Amino acid sequence: MYSEKNEDFRFVIITGMSGAGKTSLMQKLEEVGYYCVDNLPPVLIARFADLCWQSTSRMRRVAVVTDIRGGSFFDALPQALDELTKRGIPHEVVFLEASDEVLVRRYMETRRKHPLSGERRLQESIQEERRVLAPIRAMADLIIDTTGMKVADMLQLLTSRFGISGDEKDMEITVFSFGFKYGIPIDADMVIDVRFLPNPFYVQKYKHWSGRVKEVAAYIEKSPVTGAFLGKLYDFMDFIAGEFEKSGKAQFTIAIGCTGGLHRSVYVTEKLGAHLRKSHAHVNVEHRDLHRNRVEHDVVEEES
Question: Does residue 252 sit in helix, strand or coil?
């Protein structure tokens, strides 16, 4: 269905069994740069695909989800696929399915109603949907059984089938400092409390200097506990960031907190950020509460 001169254009139509993971697949494609539309009526697919096909914008990778939720509108999908072929628009149909047992369990866990439920029992609804979708399944370019599929398997599929390069799926890591007295952040995957480290606040000279100042960093590092802690922190973060990246996590946020967000948390954030940059392509370092403090001589010392 692809022509060489338009090999950069991808129009993916995702369909299949309810609960088989269509939304998850769409979200993964969106994370790596696809423009995604959920629950698009089939009667609009050809018109939308043509718009994307003729566009000179960045909409060269597009994915749409269409399924039984569309009710009677869904019956038009075969005609929509025929129209795409007639217009010469490159496209592929991905059909997701899973075993009855897995689909039943997923519905029981989420407590959602099946689109065909009505007065039927859940398993009867699943069997009816499978019957209705049989013709569409036969037209699919790719059938994915998600019964025992892990996230790593999904990522491998995205890489091999949809042309996703390794750089595009690198996880973005953000490390930021904060002060507990200004509130614990709610947008962090992990919060590290470093209030056990020596506090430069009680040294008059360092009171208004941040943890980015060379002298303040030296004061914190003077304690043996600092080196021991950083070693363990680096090992732990290398492990957990690596595992999160393998699992397909797109963003990983680490919050480092001390009392005011000026000395110890800033110091540790800078050190951890520099360490993670050695093995990860996208690492951001931020200081949430530094502006709340009267900071003087805020000189960054680069880690060697």
Answer: strand
